[in-house]
């Protein structure tokens, strides 16, 4: 019986075993980007002398996102 090509060809083995690590790396990059954005917004809120305008901006962005996701142009 011929040997399993997966175990004899290093490129096949590397490609086969690297998928989970690549996905983990991509996921980690997404989480880091989200973390940076959250900390940036947190810093903005902590340093703001008045949270009113900031909260109004967040409310407007949220309303725009909800409308964009749920209202279709006809």
Short description:
With 74 residues, the protein is an all-alpha fold. The protein contains 3 helices and no strands.
Please write out the topology.
Layout: H1 5-8, H2 10-47, H3 51-70
Find the count of extended strands (DSSP E, 2+ residues).
Answer: 0
User: How far from one another are the termini?
Assistant: 64 Å
- What's the Cα radius of gyration? 24 Å
Mean pLDDT: 82
Secondary-structure-derived class: mainly alpha
Largest sheet, in brief, is: none
Low-confidence runs: none
Structure write-up:
The chain has one domain (5-70). By secondary structure, it is mostly helical. It contains three helices and no strands. It is flat and about 50 Å long. The longest helix has 38 residues, at 10-47. 84% of the residues lie in helices and 0% in strands.
Structural key phrases:
mainly alpha; 3 helices; 74 residues
């Amino acid at each position: 019986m011929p040997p399993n090509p997966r175990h004899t060809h290093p490129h096949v083995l590397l490609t086969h075993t690297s998928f989970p690590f690549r996905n983990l790396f991509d996921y980690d990059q997404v989480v880091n980007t989200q973390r940076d954005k959250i900390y940036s917004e947190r810093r903005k809120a902590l340093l703001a002398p008045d949270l009113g305008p900031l909260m109004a901006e967040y409310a407007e962005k949220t309303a725009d996102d909800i409308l964009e996701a749920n209202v279709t142009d006809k």
